[in-house]
Amino acid sequence: MNAVSLILVYLFAINFISFVTMGVDKARARKRLWRIPESTLFVLALIGGSIGSIAGMYFFRHKTRHWYFVYGMPAILIVQILIVILLATSPIEFLVM
Q: Model confidence at 96, in pLDDT bands (50, 70, 90)?
């Protein structure tokens, strides 16, 4: 398995985990059980799960009233996209095995 395949598998997995985590937190909120910390939800987005987090927010209608989620999650995604663009257009070559 090459590096690009590993990165794609990682991104799929972390986005799936982020999506499911939003759903689990919403279910726990409805039942008034122990909740997943908001910091955990943001960390999952920061390590690559921003698309899954945004999809989970709107699919489960969870955290959509909190401005820091409504603006923060897309901001994280935009920064991640900019980093990928900068790395892809960088004059420095990255070795991908």
A: low
